[in-house]
Design brief:
Number of domains: 1
Structural class: mainly alpha
Helix content: over 70%
Number of strands: 0
Number of helices: 6
């Protein structure tokens, strides 16, 4: 998600500084779309926004939450 190609395809990620509200919202939306292949539900979105706002260096941890989730893992069974 941090590759130049991905950021160029998603202007919000490209044009907003890491850690800004707009960046964090789009980062979470893209995690849902890329990892879970669906849109975020309000509860999950708010949970992850609270996490990233509490742990501003937690982007890698947040990615781990998604790829370790049962929903993601089920895609490969």
């Amino acid at each position: 998600m941090e590759s130049p190609e991905f950021r160029d395809a998603h202007p919000i990620l490209r044009d907003n500084p890491v850690g800004s509200q707009a960046y964090n919202e789009e980062f979470i939306r893209q995690l849902y779309r890329c990892a879970l292949q669906r849109e975020a539900d309000p509860g999950g979105f708010n949970y992850h926004m609270t996490f990233i706002n509490t742990y501003p260096d937690g982007y890698t941890t947040l990615i781990g939450h998604f790829i370790e989730s049962p929903e993601y893992q089920q895609r490969f069974q």
